[in-house]
Amino acid sequence: MQSSNGRYRPDGGGPDSAVENPDGHGPAPHDMRHEDPWYDALASGWGELDGTGLSAAAAVPVARAGQEDPGDHARDVYLEVQRSAAFQEVRGRYRGFVVPGVVVFLGWYVGYVVTATAAPGLMARPVAGAVNVAMLAGLGQFLTTFLFTWAYSRHARLRRDRAALELRWDTQELARGNRGGGL
Length: 183
What we know:
183 residues
């Protein structure tokens, strides 16, 4: 079989193949070619070799030393913001809530799974009618998921969102070159 660019394909065809059109009309399938210019184009750097055996993607020229990269200013702004006390405070508030919350939630989940597998008699103990300890603990998993989500959004709204919005505004001001931001 032949690809649209005329290269030989090892699955039984190619430019030298003696395949004929089965219905006897028109050119043989190997003579047909797609005229779509994008069909045969390789993506830049995908599978192309630069002559040294390395991919052409690795041969991207380095920027000239005398020219300043426009991304340098943005990188400096973001590094400045990251080092600021305001950013560290927002980040500390985030970690102060999330790390203990994740530890408690994962502990509760692992405890539920371990108890369900290690103590099936305890989990099968009836509480009220057909409701047993395992059903209550499973529903408790859903309840704690919703409670944790509510607590996280409340904590973010009350303790982090305003400071994060101010940081974002200051970052945009600094990135635009207006040094009026108050970091």
